[in-house]
Amino acid sequence: MQTKENWEQVYQTKAPDTVSWFQVHAEHSLQFIHSTGVNHDGPIIDVGGGASTLVDDLLKEGYHSLSVLDISGAALNAAKKRLGVLKEKIQWIEADVTRVSLPEAYYDIWHDRAVFHFLILAEDRSAYIELVKRSVKSGGHVIIATFAEDGPSKCSGLPIVRYTANELQTELGASFILTRYEKKAHYTPLGNVQQFLYCCFTNVGGLIDAEL
Questions:
Q1: pLDDT tens, position by position, 95-149
Q2: Which pTM value belongs to this model?
Q3: Which phi and psi angles does 82 have, rounded to 5°?
Q4: How confident is the model at residue 190, as a pLDDT?
Q5: Strand arrangement of the beta sheet that strand 107-113 belongs to
Q6: Per DSSP, what are the bridge partners of residue 141?
Q7: Cα of 193 vs its chain's centroid, Å
Q8: pLDDT number for residue 210
Q9: 176: which DSSP letter?
């Protein structure tokens, strides 16, 4: 995964709406969040949310237990500036997702668009998945979007791992059940097309333990 210093440089030298992953509205993420049926008071964390506008739209829709985690303070600051006084309604977490401590069994929804595919080392993926197991409620939902098998092989000059739905299921393991997946074409600000895969999993780890 790229170092914190490199991500800081990206957001200190580029406007948030010029990076390749920019979306005016994270419409597909919102659709997946809505499909979970989680109430507006259910805790949601946007991992790698940075300067994403997802949190803006969630606030407008009435969700009010929101956290945004990103390795880049500059990215988080861009979102805070955009939100103005509404930034006080969000918990901002500046941290590396493979090394951070989060509340146990707390989140109803874990959302990650384009972080997991940067984890090219098995130990980083393992740390990420263990954090998901600890911090997402039993019965909670994990929404992950990565480059699809026919998507780009690099992002921001960095190698990534492309996935199919079955491959993501294998990575997450038996504690998670795949409940929905879709491929979606993302158009970058320069007009390039990137194929993304969106998957939603339910955390059944606690349910399995209860039955044993």
A1: 999 999 999 999 999 999 999 999 999 999 999 999 999 999 999 999 999 999 9
A2: 0.92
A3: -65, -40
A4: 84
A5: 90-94, 66-70, 44-47, 107-113, 136-147, 193-203, 176-187
A6: 109, 202
A7: 20
A8: 46
A9: E
**Which domains are delineated in the chain?**
4-211 (3.40.50.150)
Burial class (CB in 10 A: 0-12, 13-18, 19+), 180: middle
- Tens-place pLDDT, residues 12-40: 888 887 787 778 889 999 999 999 999 99
Question: Which residues, at least 6 apart from 48, have a Cβ–Cβ distance to it below 8 Å?
Answer: 69, 70, 71, 97, 112, 113, 114, 115
And the tokens for 179? 């409940």
Nearest CA to 21 among 157, 195, 188?
188
Closest CA to 136 of 114, 166, 112, 118: 112
Helix (H) or strand (E) holding 79: helix 73-83
